[in-house]
Amino acid sequence: MRKRRDPIKDTAREVRVFRARSLLAALLVLLMAGGLGARLFYLQVVEHDVFTTRSEKNRVRVEPLPPTRGLIYDRQGQLVAENRPTYNLTIVRERVRDIDATLDRLVDILGLDETQVEAFRKRSRQRQRPYQPALLMSDLNERQIARLAVNRYRLPGVEVEAQWLRHYPSPKIMSHVLGYVGRINEQELASLDSGNYAGTHYIGKTGIEKQYEEALHGKAGLRKVETNARGRVLRELERTPPEPGKDLTLTIDTRLQQMAYDLLDGRRGSIVAIQPQTGDILAMVSAPGFDSNEFVTGISYKDYQSLQKDLDLPLFNRAVRGHYPIGSTIKPFEALAALQNGVVTPQEVIYDPGYYKLPNDSRHYRNWLRWGHGRVDLERALAVSNNTYFYTMAHRLGIDALSSFMYKFGFGEVTSLDVQGASSGTVPSREWKREKYGQAWYPGETLSAGIGQGYWMVTPLQLATAEATLANRGEWVRPHLAKRVGETSVEPPFKNTKSDVKLDKDVWWDDVFSGMEKVVSGREGTARHIGKGLKYEMAGKSGTAQVFSLGQNQKYDADELKERLRDHALFTAFAPVDDPQIAIAVIVENAGGGSSHAAGLARALADEWLLPDDENTHQAEELIEEDVEVEGT
Questions:
Q1: Where is the active site (predicted)?
Q2: How confident is the model at residue 19 (pLDDT cuts 50, 70, 90)?
C-alpha cells in the first residue's frame, strides 16, 4: 500500500498563524499605547503643577546675597577694621554625587598639606542648611583660582565665590578692643536667623565685633537666576539687594592706643584711659596682644596651641578680665569713706612709728617705710602712701562700711555700657566671705583690705572707671566704646542706674585731690619724679599689689624672687585737676613699685593727650626709675 505524502507548503495554516500573531501584537501595542497615554495624562494633567514647579526649580535658582560688613573707625576717623576682596571655595553637598571623591580631587588640585587637609575635611562635614554653600577654604590665591577654573567640569557643586574678608590694619594693638570675626560654627548656626545669615560665613566672635554684631552684619538679600543643566548661571531674573552693615565709630584714639601699647614695651599689663565728662574710653590696652587677622580665615592648630600655651597669655584680655589687688590706689576712696562716715577729719594727725597694732594683738602691721613717717594727716598720708594711717581708718570704718562705699564707685560690678566680657571683680565683706568660704571675718583682714590687699580684686577698666568718677567729683558717667553707630550718635552722658556719689561736704573732694596732687608734685610724693616739668596739675596715686603675702618679719626683696612672683605696679591719675580731660589706670605685672614703674607711663600718656606736639618732648623712659622702697605692701 502506498503512503500519503504531506504537502510541501500549507498556505492556509500559515495565514491563520499570521493572523493570530498580528492580532496579539496589535493588542499588545494598543495596551502599551494605552498605558503610555495614561502615564502622560497623569504627568501632564494630574501632576501638572508639581512637575512644573520642579522643572522651574531646575531652571531657576534662588541665591542668598550676604551683606557687606560695616567698617569700624576710631574717634578721629581712622579705619581700624576694614573689608578686603577675596575668593572663597564653597561646596553645596546636595549637588555632589560622591563627596569623598570630590574632596580628594580638591586636595590634589589645591596641593594642601596634611594639617590643611584635616581642617578642610572637617569643614566639609560641618552641619549646614540644605542647599546652602559650606565654606571650605578662604582667601584663595591666583594660582589656586586658576587650577580650580581649569578643573571646574570635574567638580559639580563646587564654586569659587568672591566676597569681602575682614582685615585689621593694626591687629596687635587693637586685638582685645575689636576682637575678631571667625567662621560660623555649628552651635552658632543653630541659633542664628537662617534667612539673615544665608550665605554669610563669618560672625563676630569677641570684642566689639561680637558686641555690635547685629548692627555690623546688616541684612541679607537674594536673587533669582536662570541656570543651565550644569548649574551655571545664564542670567539674573530678580534681585533684592542686601542691606549693608552699619559703620561703627569708636571712642578709641588710635594714636593714644598705640602709645599705650608701646609704653608697656613688651611687659605684661594693661592701660585704660577714659574721658571723665563723656565716659569715652580713649585707650584700652592689654599686653601682649595677638594678630587678630590669623583668626579670620582660621588659625592653624599649631599656632593656636602656641598662643594658648604662651605663659604671657596673649589671648587673655587683662583690661576687662584681669583680676588684681587694688593696692594703695584704694586710699583716695578710703579717705573719702572715712570723711563721709565721720571717723576722721582732714586735720586729724596720727602718729606712725612704722607699724600699727590692733588692740590686744601683738602683731605688727607694718608701714612700707619701716621706721615710719611720724605725724601724718590726711593730705600727707595720701602723698607718702602711709599704711599706718589707712590701717587706722580701715579699723575705724570696719569692712562693711568700706565695702559699701567702694560699691558707689563701681567696684564689684560691671558698669561699662558695651565692653564685651567685662568682669565684676571682688569687693570683700563679711557676708561675701561667709557665702564664699563659710568663714567669719577677722579684724586683721580689715587692715589688709584698708591698703588694698587681701581679697580685693579689680580690673584695670574698673580702676579707670572709678578714677573718672573721682575726677568728676562723684558724678557717674558710664564708660563705653561706641561713639556712633551708622549715622546715629550715641550721646553722652550715658547715665546708668547708679546714683552719683554724694558727700556731706563738697570740700572733702578738694582735701583728697590735694593729697593726690602732692603724690606727683609734693616734696615727699611717692611719684614726685614724674612731676618734673609738668605743665598741668595732675592728681595721682601709686600702688603695689602683692602676688603673695609676706610673713610677720619678712622684708620684700624683688631680687630674690622669681619674676612672676614679684609685685604688680599700679598707678591711677587724672588731669588737669580743675578740669579733668583724662583719667588713667596703669597696671604692669610683676614690675615692682607703682611709683617707679607705672607712674611714668601715666604721665607720658597724659602728656600725649593734653599737650601739643611741640610741648611734649620728653621720653617715657625718663620717667621710670629703679625701686628704692615699695609703697603699700
A1: 328
A2: confident
Number of domains in the chain: 2
- Are 463 and 608 found together in one domain? yes
- Residue 25: pLDDT over 80: yes
Active site residue 328: yes
pTM confidence score:
0.82
CB 275 within 8 A of CB 282: yes
CATH of the domain at 207: 3.90.1310.10
Give the whole-angstrom CA distance, residue 412 versus residue 427.
Answer: 5
Domain harbouring 355, CATH code: 3.40.710.10
Range 590-598 average pLDDT: 85
Q: Check whether residue 438 and residue 545 sit in a common domain.
A: yes
DSSP β-bridge partners for residue 485: 248, 488
Which residue of the set 138, 170, 292, 328 is catalytic? Answer: 328
Give per-residue burial for 104-116: e unless 16+ CB within 10 Å, then b: eebeebbebeeee
Ranges 18-27, 169-178, 501-510, 542-551: which has the least confidence = 542-551
Q: Which domain holds residue 231?
A: 64-250
For the ranges 528-532, 547-551, 629-633, the one whose mean pLDDT is highest: 528-532
